[in-house]
Amino acid sequence: MINLYTKSQQAYGEFNNGDIIENKPIGFPQDGGKLRAYSNLFYWAHATAKKDSVIGLHPHRGFEIMSIVIEGEIVHYDTLQNKWIPLNEGDVQLIQSGKGISHAEALKKDASIFQIWFNPDLRKTLQDEAKYIDVQGSDFPVDDNKTIIVGNGSPIKLESEGVEIDIIAFEKGKFEMNFLDENYYSIYIIEGELKNDAMKVTKDDFMLIENETSLTMEVLIKGKLICIKSPTTTSYPTY
Q1: What are the DSSP calls for 183-201, one per residue?
Q2: pLDDT confidence of 197, banded at 50, 70, 90?
Q3: Is residue 148 a contact partner of residue 154, using CB atoms and an 8 Å limit?
Q4: How far is CA 177 from CA 2, 209, 229, in A?
């Protein structure tokens, strides 16, 4: 089953009177949008800054908060590092918020990021000390057209079970992906356009795939996507 959620069907949010705008394939219950948390994916926002703007200091507990810089530059502050740290296109930050941590983000004009919350076993993580890691884009392993953000060889290790994350580039022509049973595949089109007999997908569209063995599409405009594999069931209760 392939469910398509176009940008207009996703939740909308903003900060600082629209200086930062977000579309959210997976929003909070109060955000609207057609899709809610599933598997151990709790929240997913794509934020873009129209001008330099700061999201002020705010707390997190228990969850794993990943920020992926898609374009431009952000600067991050948290109460564990206690300093501002720049992150550029391709860089990834992971906060494992444990007992509690607060952070703030300054997005430079035209910066674009994903912020994704993963749901580990909160019975354990709420007892842990907070942890933080920054990884430069050049430090992620690359396999052909795929950059491995979480998975074989990546420096990032999640506590949320069964998660793998790849950023995949695609060129004009035939594009194929293969899937394993007992997993969700969550795909966000970062740029480009693809189609098959069933659908056409373009920038900011989101696909949730379950119980499929493969996907074959024709690339109309080259681009890239992010794909997150997560389990259809977890060994622990999710929030």
Answers
A1: EEEEEEEEEEEEE-SS-EE
A2: confident
A3: yes
A4: 13, 11, 12
d(CA 235, CA 155): 24
List of residues 6+ apart from 22 with CB closer than 8 A: 11, 12, 13, 14, 15, 45, 46, 47, 48
Tell me the backbone φ, ψ of residue 30, rounded to 5 degrees: -80, -5
Residue 39 confidence (pLDDT) above 90:
yes
- Other beta carbons less than 10 A from residue 162's beta carbon: 17
With beta carbons less than 8 A apart as the criterion, state whether 32 and 11 touch.
Answer: yes
Q: Where are the beta strands (DSSP E) in the chain?
A: 2-5, 11-15, 20-26, 41-49, 53-60, 64-71, 73-78, 84-88, 92-96, 101-107, 112-118, 131-135, 142-143, 146-150, 164-170, 173-178, 183-195, 200-202, 206-210, 214-231
What is the enclosing helix (H) or strand (E) of 124?
A: helix 122-125
81-92 burial code (b ≥16 CB/10 A, e <16): eeeeeebeebbb
pTM for this predicted structure: 0.94
